[in-house]
Design a protein that fits this description.
- With about 180 residues, this protein is an alpha+beta fold.
- Helices cover about 20% and strands about 40% of the residues.
- The two termini are about 30 Å apart.
């Protein structure tokens, strides 16, 4: 049940040891690619990309067998991560790999590209814990996250300026939320 004014975010931790099935390739999108690849602006306007790159974020994308980009994921390795849905920064006592703002164009949805992308990225980035979050109302994202071998570890509730974090298991992922003015 959705209660007006309450935002619920689900936080997941990567527990997978094997890849999901699709055999597609992952590429790192770099700022100079914007010149030749204006399609990215369809999903992320230039000012969003510029700000995120300046903040040390990376944009990865999965290309299908025809070489067409079919799923995107932003990535940052840091101990702090701003969650726009909460208007809060999650602060971890150590660096984590955080995947966020993942998008799969409508015509490629339901074909396994999203779970493949985040699973393959997580398998490559095992030095630090891999986390991802999604709104509890985004059922497709949450289903894809579970398919990519992530496990739900926390529910984060926000009402006005109050935040409650509920741990669901002993994942070893510890953090707190702080408002950034």
């Amino acid at each position: 049940m959705k209660i007006p004014g309450i935002t619920t975010i689900l936080l997941y931790h990567f527990v997978g040891k094997e890849h999901v099935s699709l055999d597609e390739s992952i590429k790192l999108f770099i700022p100079s690619d914007l010149v030749n690849n204006k399609w990215i602006l369809e999903y992320f306007p230039g000012n969003i990309c510029d700000k995120r790159w300046q903040d040390g974020n990376k944009l990865f994308y999965l290309v299908n067998k025809d070489g067409i980009p079919c799923s995107f994921a932003w990535f940052k390795n840091d101990s702090k991560h701003f969650v726009g849905e909460l208007n809060k920064t999650l602060i971890f006592p150590y660096k984590v790999n955080c995947f966020f703002d993942c998008i799969t164009p409508i015509k490629y949805r339901g074909q396994g590209y999203y779970p493949t992308l985040i699973n393959k990225l997580s398998m490559k980035e095992l030095i630090y814990p891999n986390i991802i979050y999604a709104s509890s109302s985004n059922r497709a994202s949450n289903k894809g996250i579970l398919k990519a071998k992530f496990e739900l570890t926390h529910r984060i509730f926000r009402f006005l300026d109050f935040v409650k974090i509920t741990g669901l298991n002993n994942s070893g992922i510890n953090f707190y939320a702080k408002k950034i003015s």
